[in-house]
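Data availability (excerpt). The following record was deposited with the supplementary files.
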Amino acid sequence: MQFNFLETIDNLITALIYLIVSFVLFLIGKKVYQLFHRSINMDQELVEKDNLAFSFANVGYYIAMVIVISAVYSGEGIGHIVDDLIEVGIYGLLSIFLLNVSILISDKVILRKFSIKKEIVEDQNVGVGILEAAICIANSLVIYGVITENQDNFFEILILWLIAQFVLALVSVVYNKITPYDIHEYIKKDNVAVGIGFSGAIVAVANLVRFGTQMEADSWIVVGENLLLETGIGLLLLPLARVLTDKILLPKRNLTDEIVNQEKPNNGAAIIEAFSYIGGSILICLSFA
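Predicted structure:
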């Protein structure tokens, strides 16, 4: 293949333009996050207080921002760079807005039993910080699926996004039912391990919902069937993955004892539990792909 210098330069300039736009969207996303959390001095929490809990939550949001921005580029391109950039700008801003509203809803519904600000800022509860990061990432996965397959249709985007919010809330209820302890109670007690396990469950089901929204569908009925299928699989995955962790990944230990029934909760065991949820969701998506 003959090297074309002008074409290479053109591709580099185009890539640079998209990169700059991505950074601009990221900065806008950061500002929007600050607007939604005006009562928190982020620089003070990160630098002066060395607040690890807030660092987890903040980085989780940054990861989520990268995911939702990448969603904008994953749709079908329009062709002309100007039109494409307009599309990127519109759906980029929409994704940022939906992400921040999603986080607000999740905080009020999934973490309704305690104050996020108090736990993360005042108490520096690392378990809540990790859980907040997971909520950010979970919502970004949902938005990724919704945006990539439904560009040019705001109505479908909003409907699917609302359904996903309900599913994530349902996950918190189901997960609390399958665990022999009250997750909210132990998270409030600064039990990081419980927060890690719960985080894995939320991200895992969000990944399945993301996949469900991206499955081929030619009608709302099929879309509903796909989401129902993936949500059902996700809810079944949670107890099965927990049993798998207990019997196979940690055969000589009881997961509940490791997480809540000892003086120092075993964060390593909780990470394995979270992995079993997320790993299972990835394998399920690959199986249906």
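Summary of structural features: The longest helix spans residues 5-36.
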